[in-house]
User: Fold this.
Amino acid sequence: SENIYKEIPDFFQQKRDFFRSLLSETKFKLLPCKGSYFQCVSYGQISDEKDTEIAKRLVVEFGVASIPVSAFYTKNTDDKILRFCFAKEQSTLEQAVERLMKI
Assistant:
């Protein structure tokens, strides 16, 4: 019914809030997150790697996928920011953050 569409924003806000609360326990710096299914984080205090390099390393070494923000720019921009999608099952988010805490 039509009411299901009205519940979607609350559904994703709960996922965002849950993921942010978990991520706040890691070394990543949380950036403002409004109106999307992605949480951006700064990792400059963790590593000097390019965002593309650390994104690849997170997949290979930790099994966690992220999107390097530089992928959205045509110029050689690297602000040490990654995007994580939180439109996932709660258990998946918990496992991802558990792995990210090892960094």
